[in-house]
Design a protein that fits this description.
heterodimer, A: mainly beta, four-stranded antiparallel β-sheet, 0% helix, 51% strand, B: alpha/beta, Alkaline Phosphatase, subunit A, 2 domains, eight-stranded mixed β-sheet, two-stranded antiparallel ribbon, globular, disordered N terminus
Chain lengths: 355, 421
Amino acid sequence: MTNPEESNGIGGRPEAPPLPEMPLDVTKSHVAAEFKHEVALTTCRIDPTGRYAFAGAEDFNVYRWEIDGAAESKTIFKGHNSWVRCVDFSPNGELLFTAGYDDHIGIWNTADAEPKPIAMIEAHKGWVRWVRVSPDGKLLASCGNDNLIKVWNLPDGTLLREFAGHERYPYAVVFHPDGKRLASFDLMGVLREWDLESGKQLRSLEAKFMWGFDQKFRADMGGARDMCFSDDGKTLAVAGLTEVTNAFAGVHKPMILLVDWDKAEPQHKFKVDSYKGMAWGVRFHPDGFVMGVGAPQSGNKGAVWFWKPGEEKAFHTVTLTHCGRGLDLTPDCRRFAVAQFDGSLRVYQMTDKAS
Amino acid sequence: MRRDIGCNRMDHAVSRRSFLGASAAGSAVVGGLLTAAQAEQVRSGQKRILQIFLQGGVSQFESWDPKPGTRLGGPFRSISTAVPGMEICELLPHTAQRMDKLSIVRSINLKTNSHRVGQLRMEKGRIAGEYPYVGSVGAKYFTPPDARLPGFIHISTRGITDNTNAFLPAQHAQLKLEGVKAPSNLVRSDKLSEEAAKRRDEFRRRLSERFSASRPGQKAYTEAFESSFTLADRLISQKSLFEAEPSAKDVERYGSHPFGLRCILARELLMNGGTCVKVTHHGYDTHAENFNFHLEQLGEFDHTFCMLLDDLADAGMLESTLVLVHSEFGRTPKINQRYGRDHWGASCSMAMGGCGIVPGAIVGATNKEGTAVSEREVASGHLFHTYFSALGLDTASDHDIPGKSIPIGDPAAAPIEELLA
């Protein structure tokens, strides 16, 4: 591998852009921008500066658009030899990290006009399913099909630590906001907490309701499709599925699980009883609600749901034109981006159109 | 109209190729590690079929016909194999190292997306109609008269109970084993004394003889009836095969999962007089999460299948055992919204090797995105002809059924000659 250049600083968060005047109202959510790609998207993220939206696709590449720019702002990040289903950024937004199903982690300059990987780290034996940067930007966590959680030094990309313990594929790993712990979630619905300093597992929690064994096909179905901590670190949100009745036909219900992290116990389970499918993304909004994006088992109508903690039913739903496959918020938390199966990346504004 | 009037006896149906093959197998060097029964099995020159059925429709993209980097190719890469220039999906790393023992057909068009129709076409080598399955045909023509086991044994935990023998005598129907369990009612009830059982058998034989004498044209009925008792007697004599626990070493090599245990049993059956053994590996009907499920399913298949292939090769039995790996169809090039692939019979693949098959060959091709066959299109009829031609059967001849003219292979198809050794 080649090391990232020293000049690629990974310092603190940039200043957020000034907030618009209009009050936030999710019931007024509308499409503010739409970008098209010819292949199904696999994920999306918005960089910490709020300038760019990134998406992985079913064509081995990652794509970048300027959120407030034209469709022509589309820029290709070519370097992986398989799909990318997870990306993350350094806190200042200067570096992009990509998790490839080609066993590699890619490191890129986020804003390059003609992007080329600064480094491609051979990270796992089998898919790299997830990457996340630590809050201070000094570490990168990954998980893969070798059942390992790995932590890498940044910016040089050297391996710092390995965590073994998951017996089946870990689907996602995230840093706790305190920067000292990691949480990872596997195919079987097992959630583990790891201590970065000692390299040991601290706790494990079984969320078996987010896993199912299909007796007919003898197959396990489960795993996190997205995962994030609330800013205060008290709650972990996991997006995935529940109530698997036919794994191979994708007959199950979407679920967003909130975990009380101090107590290590489920705090709330958001699901939509009338909806069969998968939850592919989750975010905490600073106004106190939780957002999730889903794809149906059949039909086109993806959805973005808005829940208030403690309430069973979503207080609002945005119906998508196609299946949602990823969700992220802009830094000002007034807009969200959704990656769709039809190859479009849509940016919604959660205010009245007049704004 | 009969194709070989006055000549439908078994000794004519088995061709010169079969005879030469049998002679060659009979003189094979037998490894020192073989048991006496296995050594006898090799010396006997018996032809066998090992059929691995990947139920549900394995994806050709994720197995024998990868299209990495193409629009519909999915996330997996291709890897090189033991055969220069041949690449298969990275999900089959162990099989890749053994492709010098196997060949691939990449240009199968089954013209159906139905599980049931696809399965019947792959088994019967016919578009439609009541014809026997591969295993039943194999049982009919390759089971020795003194065989210690039924000619066609299928190890599977579920599936439809088919009329696998069609018009062939009932003793060639599949004996379906529910996993690695012995057939039920294999042992005489304690309530029935040995003496009483003997008297009962004698009474039954006398009734059958009387029934046959009174209906001279309907001998098949009593033959079918009697054959079931003959099969039962054979099974009882071999019940130790089902009762023995696999060794720890075998379990370590094959895996402790159901498919691993079934393949250990398949090996034991083949090495102890079995003629046609079919093992079903369930779980390829991946309408959702095709890639995650193929990771799991083919990971299980790849290693286990290779252990079985190695053991047959080490025992010197690969030269006399036809190995087939197939599904009822493939999966769609299009990746659906659930990361799944749906049913697709228009351009699918299979692998075969062993007895009479040229190793390391690739027959046919699909186009760049795998949406259609582009070279050497074949149907199930061609495959069926190829299997039995490789075993030495003249598939253009009629079945050995007195009074009937039924060609063994579909007259509209022919063997894939480039696959025949």
